[in-house]
Amino acid sequence: MSLLTFLRELWLVKKTLIVLLTPFIFLPIAVVGKTIESRCAYGLSIMTVYWITEALPLACTALLPVLIFPILEVQPVDKICANYIKDSSMFGFSWLTFAIAVEKCRLHKRIALRTLLLAGSNPKWLMLGFMVPTWFMSMWMSNTATTAMMLPIVQAVLLELDPAQHQIKGDEEQELLDNNQSKRGSSILSKRHPSKSEEETYKYLCKGMCICVAYAANIGGSGSLSGTSPNLILQGQAEIIFSERGLDSGVNFVSWMIFALPGSLISLILAWMWLSLFFLGPRKWMNWKCGTDEGVGNLLKKQYDELGSITFAEKSVIAHFIVLIVLWLSKKPPVVPDWGSFFPRKYVGDSAVAVLLCLSLFVFPSERPKTLFFKRRSTDRGETVPALLDWKTVEKNYPWGVLLLLGGGYALAGVCQDSGLSTSISQYLHVFVIFEPWLMNFFLTILVSICTEVTSNTATSAILIPIMAQLAVGLSINPLYLMWSCCIATSFAFMLPVATPPNAIVFATGHLQVKDMVMSGSVLNLLCVIVLNLGVNTWGKAYFNLGVIPPEFLTNVTSVAVGGSAANSTMNFTDIEQPLGTISQILNISTIV
Fold this sequence. Notes:
By secondary structure, this protein is mostly helical. Helix content is 62%, strand content 2%. The strands form two sheets. A two-stranded antiparallel ribbon has the order 1-4. Strands 2-3 form a two-stranded antiparallel ribbon.
């Protein structure tokens, strides 16, 4: 057997080899260190490799804390298992169930097609017409489901815009019906062969239309608390860190929208401007058209008409959605009294409201009832009407791996925090003390956005958010200042097909090459990071008072303000740094993370 053949066969079983060899490769971390931090770092290293390589399914890797850390005597198994169902987990479960109800009644498709009809047929407005509904729906639904729903519509529109599909008729075909007899005129159809310039223009149009959907889904996921898994991980971690000190983190549905929605909207507009300029060209951006307005309009109108008039089920889901949003917004409004004040503090949260409306979906009828006082005619016979949602539909369509990913993230973060590993790793990041806080935050968000290109955004946030919290406290900065920036930066994965499922879905159409995503995505990464840092340092700092660290976080630290240079802080690093012991022997753990 030649070496090449041997290597080829090894490549076929690469995932199995990664699963088997990784624990042995990192074994010196646990053996040499002989501390709880080193044992925790060993488990963290294994999970990081599995998450990056996807040698095991992401959800399966999320179960490893239950196996690894009790064996390594880092944390008891009952405490680890308790992390898999938390308040934020139930929030995510209820909201994803709600999204399934939206998909079942096809309300999301109606919203998308209606928006496209309003956008018109000009390519730049069509691109915006695809991006806006994708962005909006990804705030409430799975980014993957939103992209998968929008892509067939994109491809149908692109087919209509293809210049090779336009036909020129010689003699019109006529059909005359008279006394059940028909007469046909002669018809000669000829295809107009597009020029090379038209073909090139159409090729770039296909690239832009496909990639804009994925990017809009990624951006929209950061706009609301329910948008993507890292958002829920941040909420859960913030609650843990702040509640340990008797504080309320303030991270809820309302506060998230106030902080993240403006930045998400600005990022969407910048993404649209950049992608339309990049793929359509600056000279053609204003006046270039491909195909006919009537053709695209007729196509979209036909698909919209196939949905029929809005149904009772769609109206009911909209009503549930409005009630849910109103209850969330009125629970803790900035000024007026809230209904949450009728309950003891921390007894009723956003998840309780979500569960209430979620349960209602299994009871509320999907059609107008024909019984009791709902009868329209006295002759109507009473019939059982199915509910808006049934459990079989939920079982079939619910992304159960998301629950495990959230739980695994919470478990990993809890283990790193309790073992002291997060604090130890944060010591390696104290090099950032030489920078102003805003500049440090800028560098960190760029680093996170690069990391999330090659690993799951859920895994990235689960690993880094606790570290950012410890780093912020050590530098006398409000933990939310770095945690929030790190969390949202994980959604800025635009450069590689493997970065997010939406990227992979649009790449599979065959219109895109990796270089297209790298060239367009790298600029968009930078633009979104700039917008994020602008938001966290302006309206974010003003609303959450991020410029001040709560006194409860201060341990041997006398400086509170973040407005000045961290290097000039009066905090005593000698006092706050814990002895690293053999942590320096953990094989440069900062590079592993």
